[in-house]
Amino acid sequence: LTWHSRPVQFNFLWQNVLESHCCSTIFYLLSVGTWTPFNPVTVRSIISMFDRENKGGVNFNEFAGVWKYITDWQNIFRTYDRDNSGFIDKNELKQALTGFGYRLSDQFYNTLIEKFDRQRKGQVAFDDFIQCCIVLQRLTDVFRRYDTDQDGWIQVSYEQYLSMVFNVV
Ligand SMILES: [Ca+2]
Ligand SMILES: [Ca+2]
């Protein structure tokens, strides 16, 4: 069974979040369908995006946001998983990221697959695909702040470099 082949009830999920009020629940629930643990780094990234009160968890409204975010990503994933394999291979990743406006070399796609292929399958699972896009977006945002003339080149000092990295990790 693949993640997107199983319909999941929002209210059922929220009930479970309430009962054990913790990210670890969401962590488990998001794995529904694949029966593999959802990338914990991705879960933390997503929770921190919606956790406006900074409590390390989400309330009902925030959870609704998380749920919409995940289902939006499911649709994107489905669109680019052309062969319906439940994984994004290098060519599918290339089409997805090109669609998002990234211009990256063939060589760099190998690097991306190597970095985000947590299951060591030579391709990227749903949660790792989200993670790949989040990280790429953050790094690109930081780079753009320095690349004021938008020529794709920046010159930074050691401490500027450290600040850039701290913005992402
Ligand atoms: Ca595929
Ligand atoms: Ca520049």
UniProtKB/TrEMBL annotation:
<dbReference type="GO" id="GO:0012507">
    <property type="term" value="C:ER to Golgi transport vesicle membrane"/>
</dbReference>
<keyword id="KW-0963">Cytoplasm</keyword>
<keyword id="KW-0479">Metal-binding</keyword>
<protein>
    <recommendedName>
        <fullName>EF-hand domain-containing protein</fullName>
    </recommendedName>
</protein>
<keyword id="KW-0106">Calcium</keyword>
<dbReference type="InterPro" id="IPR011992">
    <property type="entry name" value="EF-hand-dom_pair"/>
</dbReference>
<dbReference type="GO" id="GO:0005509">
    <property type="term" value="F:calcium ion binding"/>
</dbReference>
<feature type="domain" description="EF-hand">
    <location>
        <begin position="134"/>
        <end position="169"/>
    </location>
</feature>
<keyword id="KW-0677">Repeat</keyword>
<dbReference type="InterPro" id="IPR002048">
    <property type="entry name" value="EF_hand_dom"/>
</dbReference>
<dbReference type="GO" id="GO:0048306">
    <property type="term" value="F:calcium-dependent protein binding"/>
</dbReference>
<dbReference type="Pfam" id="PF13202">
    <property type="entry name" value="EF-hand_5"/>
</dbReference>
<dbReference type="Pfam" id="PF13499">
    <property type="entry name" value="EF-hand_7"/>
</dbReference>
<feature type="domain" description="EF-hand">
    <location>
        <begin position="68"/>
        <end position="103"/>
    </location>
</feature>
<dbReference type="Pfam" id="PF13833">
    <property type="entry name" value="EF-hand_8"/>
</dbReference>
<dbReference type="InterPro" id="IPR018247">
    <property type="entry name" value="EF_Hand_1_Ca_BS"/>
</dbReference>
<dbReference type="InterPro" id="IPR051426">
    <property type="entry name" value="Peflin/Sorcin_CaBP"/>
</dbReference>
